[in-house]
Design the sequence.
């Protein structure tokens, strides 16, 4: 399946919105493109859910606009055929069965009941579909929410914290599903407040804080930047190693009794320099940042609700 | 049916509004049908209405000619109780969605909020008209069986209850319409205040406090005025079949007062629903 590229986009352009004196969205701007999973990351309260509600026309922005396939969501005739969204998996009437929940949604879009059975299968709900949704675990509700999002076979899929409440099996399933949706040419936007959830899932990242975008970049580029060319050295003579390295213009930080983190000197030159000066060492490795570290670096100044900082440990 | 894939991407804003409305109606009907408590509440409405009507007919005697009782109104007394269940049903039709957050899913599926409210109102009115008709007919039938035994006989100037009688037919049809208007009043109120408990309290307060207030007020002029604008007292004037001239308001004019209340509630609900973030 392929999707006409202009239809499979979300464009968010200069959104501004206040809740009281606090700006919730402060010039939010980004584009979600087809054929890849875009991670939408930021601390709690950064504006992820508000942005998604504005995209869906549930909330109005004071300034700016949000377009789905080039048009405002509220002008779409059968919107679930253009954008499938999962906002809050628990937003169900508990007395209705999962199948009936999907059935009224299908009817609202003029879709046949056959389509309901297809997405029940796709979401792995199976026999649970005829049970009351009120008795579902959060993981089951997430699956039901996914089924609802896929009902209209939309070119754009938008999921708010879809990993919440999933067991390990569910997480693997969700990752596979997101990759598959992107492979089919759909634009996929997935929010999370945990970068680690997106590490193996997202191709592209929109990192936000305080209602605006602070990084809009590919995952590989973000990792490269965050790693910053640091080298980790393990040696039985750290003091002597530091002395030699300083002489070559490198900066060292002791990060353990026998480890140094070096900046300003590539790993190959470090090895050559130490060998020439007879400094013993057991390991030289390029420091590779995790996505989590890169994210913490980016959002350091934007976290609204922070605990007491832990003492600076290893670096 | 639209085959998936081929026409999906092309159907932006080119369908007529009535197509959207038909789909929304279908969706709202499915919702109401599968809500779990709809059938039970409608059955409760019918049972309560008939039981209270029957009990009242049994309790009131007409020992002599000119006892002044209104047999049709007596048989239909149950409406004053059945309306409370209808109000609860109508409030839950939207407040349940606010309570669970499902309203967001609804407005995501149908972004035009007035379409959603219109569809809810249509579906609700339909089921209330159907169950209201059943309740009214059963009440009249019960009255027809019970009342003659209590002195409502031809000798005392009362013919058996029958829909062939003009005023009786008007009282019956009017009572069904009364229930539908109560449903719309409750739906509009619930759309405006969102929370189920507040909406039910507001509607029941509006219905039952007015008559109590009327009893408390001493000034006959104000008493008369209050009776004319009270949604329940004015609305139920449509049930009167005797002494019409002594009533504070005429049968259809009274139902018109209730319709005005319902329209005001729906209008307020629409405006708030349209303007609010969800």
Sequence:
């Amino acid at each position: 399946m392929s999707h006409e590229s202009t239809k499979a986009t979300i464009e968010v352009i200069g959104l501004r919105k206040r809740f009281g004196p606090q700006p919730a969205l402060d010039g939010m701007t980004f584009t979600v493109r087809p054929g890849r999973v875009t991670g939408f990351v930021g601390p709690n309260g950064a504006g992820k859910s508000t942005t998604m509600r504005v995209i869906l026309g549930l909330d109005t922005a004071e300034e700016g606009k949000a377009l789905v396939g080039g048009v405002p969501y509220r002008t779409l005739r059968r919107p679930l055929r253009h954008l499938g969204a999962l906002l809050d998996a628990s937003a169900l009437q508990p007395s209705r069965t999962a199948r009936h929940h999907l059935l009224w949604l299908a009817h609202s879009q003029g879709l046949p009941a056959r389509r309901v059975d297809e997405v029940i299968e796709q979401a792995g709900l199976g026999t649970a579909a005829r049970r009351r949704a009120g008795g579902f675990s959060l993981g089951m509700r997430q699956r039901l929410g996914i089924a609802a999002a896929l009902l209209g076979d939309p070119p754009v899929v938008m999921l708010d914290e879809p990993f919440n409440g999933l067991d390990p099996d569910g997480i693997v399933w969700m990752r596979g599903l997101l990759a598959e949706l992107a492979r089919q040419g759909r634009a996929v936007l997935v929010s999370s407040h945990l970068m680690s959830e997106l590490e193996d899932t997202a191709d592209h990242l929109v990192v936000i804080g305080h209602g605006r975008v602070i990084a809009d970049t590919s995952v590989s580029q973000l990792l490269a930047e965050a790693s910053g060319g640091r080298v980790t050295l393990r040696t039985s003579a750290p003091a002597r190693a530091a002395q030699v390295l300083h002489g070559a213009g490198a900066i060292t930080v002791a990060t353990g009794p026998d480890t140094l983190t070096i900046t300003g000197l590539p790993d190959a030159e470090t090895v050559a320099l130490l060998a020439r000066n007879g400094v013993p060492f057991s390991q030289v490795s390029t420091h590779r940042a995790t996505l989590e570290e890169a994210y913490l670096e980016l959002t350091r100044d934007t976290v609204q609700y922070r605990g007491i900082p832990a003492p600076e440990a290893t670096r | 049916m639209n085959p998936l894939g081929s026409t999906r991407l092309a159907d932006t804003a080119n369908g007529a509004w009535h197509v959207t409305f038909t789909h929304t109606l279908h969706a709202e009907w499915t919702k109401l049908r599968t809500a779990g408590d709809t059938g039970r509440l409608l059955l409760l409405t019918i049972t309560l209405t008939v039981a209270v009507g029957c009990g009242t007919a049994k309790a009131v005697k007409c020992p002599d000619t000119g006892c002044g009782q209104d047999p049709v109104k007596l048989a239909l007394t149950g409406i004053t109780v059945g309306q409370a269940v209808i109000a609860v049903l109508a409030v839950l039709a939207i407040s349940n969605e606010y309570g669970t957050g499902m309203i967001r899913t609804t407005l995501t599926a149908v972004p035009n909020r007035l379409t959603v409210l219109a569809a809810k109102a249509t579906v609700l009115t339909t089921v209330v008209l159907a169950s209201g008709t059943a309740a009214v007919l059963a009440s009249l039938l019960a009255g027809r069986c019970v009342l003659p035994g209590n002195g409502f006989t031809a000798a005392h100037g009362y013919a058996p209850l029958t829909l062939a009688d003009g005023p009786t037919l008007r009282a019956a049809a009017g009572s069904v319409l009364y229930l539908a208007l109560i449903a719309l009043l409750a739906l509009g109120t619930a759309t405006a205040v969102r929370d189920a408990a507040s909406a039910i309290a507001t509607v029941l307060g509006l219905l039952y406090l007015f008559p109590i207030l009327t009893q408390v007020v001493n000034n006959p002029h104000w008493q008369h005025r209050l009776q004319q604008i009270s949604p329940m007292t004015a609305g139920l004037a449509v049930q009167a079949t005797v002494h019409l001239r002594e009533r504070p308001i005429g049968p259809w004019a009274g139902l018109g007062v209730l319709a005005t209340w319902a329209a005001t509630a729906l209008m307020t609900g629409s405006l708030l629903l349209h303007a609010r973030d969800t």
Q: What stands out?
A: The CA atoms of residues 21 and 115 of chain B lie 6 Å apart. Chain B has eleven helices and no strands. Residues 21-275 of chain B form one domain.
